[in-house]
């Protein structure tokens, strides 16, 4: 059995990009028999960006409810809240003591902020908290604690997995073979889902379509998706069409073929938008109801996550003890 692990941080409303890029592939991998999946709400990672307690709590429940509404089966997946597993934070500290500061200086997310600050003449660490700086180490602790073999993530996370590998290697070298070296699994074709403006769908660009949007608002957002100004009757290219890229994620194979033909013959963008709305709405109708039910019953979510935490701690408690023995506590 191979352990496959991934987390989602509660820093924004879950959108179609999160679903296509992370949740859908993770749920599919969870169905494979040789994988033992471990999925969690990365709330401590979320805290690096969140300062509004109410919103943070709401978004944390939202991440959990999203996984469950989309079909995660807590009997088959170890499913928990990161902050319910204190062993991760003890390991985080132990790994911190093995991490060179220089390595963290070169982490992409941190470096991008520093570069941005410098380019506008601000002090280089402006707006950087220590949680953000240490982010990759906590993520390594998440991964190494459960002897993860495979991490399904987006391209932007590759460096984090490499840092986790480096830390595992350093530890193993110093204290003897302890950690499994994790690998990443990137869903190539769906890695980047375009947003309303054609850039990667991302909360930071404000171009997202929330996954559980109500039908009327969903239609409105879809109507905002950028297109060119070709008239309805001219033949259109599916390759560079944001609408088509989204459509093929939700339509059946037959529908995709038909849409390709309609593009070739000439179809109005308004009509494509209508069809896109239909397929997305068809897909989310049921999960949206389930999501709403769960969000109305936080106690149910708490219970499921608590049971998951017990299963996770059955692994993390003895393993942390082994790690502490090796280090010399
Ligand atoms: N950094 C990940 C993201 O932003 C979230 C995350 C936290 C994670 N810990 C993880 C992903 C461990 C995979 C494994 O998407």
TrEMBL record:
Record InterPro entries: aa-tRNA-synth_I_CS (IPR001412), aa-tRNA-synth_Ic (IPR002305), Rossmann-like_a/b/a_fold (IPR014729), Trp-tRNA-ligase (IPR002306), Trp-tRNA-ligase_bac-type (IPR024109), Trp-tRNA_synthetase (IPR050203)
GO biological process: tryptophanyl-tRNA aminoacylation
Catalytic reaction annotation: tRNA(Trp) + L-tryptophan + ATP = L-tryptophyl-tRNA(Trp) + AMP + diphosphate + H(+)
PROSITE patterns associated with the record: AA_TRNA_LIGASE_I
Gene Ontology cellular-component terms listed: cytosol
EC numbers, comma separated: 6.1.1.2
Motif 'HIGH' region location, chain numbering: 10-18
Pfam families attached to this UniProt entry: tRNA-synt_1b
Binding site for ATP: 9-11, 17-18, 154-156, 193, 200-204
Main location: cytoplasm
HAMAP family in UniProt: Trp_tRNA_synth_B
UniProt record similarity statement: Belongs to the class-I aminoacyl-tRNA synthetase family.
Protein name as annotated: Tryptophan--tRNA ligase
Organism of this sequence: Bacillus yapensis
Lineage of the species this protein comes from: Bacteria, Bacillati, Bacillota, Bacilli, Bacillales
